[in-house]
Each structure stands twice: as structure tokens, then as C-alpha cells.
Write a structure and sequence with these properties.
single chain; alpha/beta; 6-stranded mixed sheet; 4-stranded antiparallel sheet; 10 helices; 10 strands; about 35% helix
Length: about 250
């Protein structure tokens, strides 16, 4: 079995590395949430971060974005230490997020929500980006003038993903993309994630649906109470007996 307990820090900028968390420890007030976690995502790679409720998955994404600052450790983007950078500066480097529960502006139209994804690209033509989003999500072209708050859950997830793609990200963070969707829509959603990944966008996906996430990922990490307890190629993690018992119900 090639999935092993996570080790210590590794060199900060290997060839092709896009994101690295290096021994990151994060607190909320006096409560420790993450304890010395190290992970990386390479250019064009799809990596999933698994774990149960309160394991620290969403806090990891917030730390990457800069919403939460680590007590110790570093966040590196393309080899550059961004630990103290504010959120907008990190987004401007080519990072985007599809947040948990979509977080759309319900009183704005679909098109207006999509435009917000490109807010840091003032003065640039967005026609090509709208075309790409509508190719992935034809329904959004039909719904472009509809208020986002009146859409179905599946359609709102399409808007959230399309909004993130409007920024032309190098790294796409996804927080529980299957949450609240029917089984049929979950399958469709993951097929779209595969399509996005195939265009060369690196993806770090937080997900509780371990089987589905690992079926499309290159590698995976498993968080438990704020520590990475397993990591390895996705195919190997799917066969890991401890992971099966804990997360796959086998």
C-alpha cells in the first residue's frame, strides 16, 4: 500500500508545484483546528481532501484563501510565500473558489453573478469566457436573465462553478461540490469537474463523498481532527482498508 501517514515538510518549490501548505497550524481563538498539515497541488493536478465533519477540511480552504491566518507554518503559491497576503491579492494570482452552499447573490441575474467572477479583470473582454462557461453549462445561457435565487440547486451549482471559471483560475478550490445535490446531479457535477480539470486547471476539492472524489482525482489526503493521517495516489486510497471502514462504509 502506497498510502502512508503524512510526513514532514518537503522542499517549497519543486518543478510544477502550484500550491503548498508547509506545516500549517491554524486556530480559531484558542481552539486548534489544524495541526502541522503539509500538502501540495501540482500544476494541472486534481487533488481531493477527505474527512468527516469537523475534521478541518473547510478551514484548510479558508487558510489557503487567506480568510484565516495560520498560527504557524506557510502557504506558498508557485513557490512564493503568501502567508501574510490578503484574500484579494491571493485571488489575483489565479486562485478561485466554488464555496460550500454556492453563496450566490440571489437578487442578481445569472449573468451578473458570472460577471462577478471576473471583477478583478476590469477592462478585459469577457466574451470568450462567457462562451466557455455556456459550453460547459448550456442551461446558464437559457437562464442568463433569471434571478439566481430562483434557480434549482443543480443550476445554482452550475452558476457557482461558472463564476469561478470567469476569473481564468490556475487553481480551483471546491468546497463540498456534491452537497445538497441529487445522485444524478452529483454524477453530472463530477463529470463537469473532470472536464474542467482536463483543460489544465488544477483542482483542490474538499469532499465527503470519498468514493466519487477519489474516482476522478490524481491524489488524495485524509484529514482527521486537524491532522493528515493518510495520503497517496487516489487509486491506492480507494483500496486502503482503514479508509474503506472510516469513509466508504465497507
Amino acid at each position: 500500500m502506497s498510502s502512508v501517514p503524512a510526513g514532514g515538510p518537503t522542499p517549497s518549490n519543486p518543478t510544477g508545484e502550484l500550491l503548498r501548505l508547509d506545516q500549517v497550524t491554524t486556530y480559531y481563538d484558542q481552539m486548534r483546528i489544524l495541526e502541522g498539515i503539509s500538502l501540495n497541488v501540482n500544476e494541472g493536478e486534481l487533488v481531493c481532501l477527505l474527512g468527516g465533519n469537523a475534521s478541518g477540511k473547510s478551514t484548510t480552504l479558508k487558510t489557503i484563501l487567506g480568510i484565516v491566518r495560520p498560527r504557524s507554518g506557510r502557504v506558498l503559491l508557485a513557490g512564493q510565500d503568501v502567508t501574510q497576503w490578503p484574500v484579494p491579492q491571493r485571488i489575483a494570482t489565479g486562485m478561485a473558489i466554488v464555496p460550500e452552499n454556492r453563496r450566490l447573490f440571489g437578487q442578481l441575474t445569472v449573468r451578473e453573478n458570472l460577471e462577478l467572477g471576473a471583477v478583478l479583470r476590469r477592462g478585459e473582454s469577457l466574451a470568450e469566457d462567457f462562451d466557455r462557461v455556456h459550453e460547459l453549462f448550456p442551461r446558464l445561457l437559457e437562464r442568463r436573465s433569471q434571478l439566481a435565487g430562483t434557480l434549482s440547486g443543480g443550476e445554482q451549482q452550475m452558476v457557482a462553478m461558472g463564476r469561478a471559471l470567469m476569473s481564468r483560475p490556475r487553481l480551483l478550490l471546491m468546497d463540498e461540490p456534491s452537497m445538497g445535490l441529487s445522485p444524478a446531479l452529483v454524477l453530472q457535477n463530477f463529470q463537469i469537474i473532470k472536464t474542467i480539470h482536463a483543460t489544465g486547471v488544477a483542482v483542490l476539492m474538499v469532499e465527503q463523498n470519498a468514493t466519487m472524489a477519489l474516482s476522478i482525482a490524481d491524489r488524495g489526503y485524509v484529514l482527521s481532527t486537524g491532522e493528515i493521517v493518510l495520503e497517496g495516489p487516489a487509486a491506492d486510497l480507494l483500496q486502503d482498508e482503514d479508509l474503506k471502514r472510516a469513509y466508504l462504509g465497507r
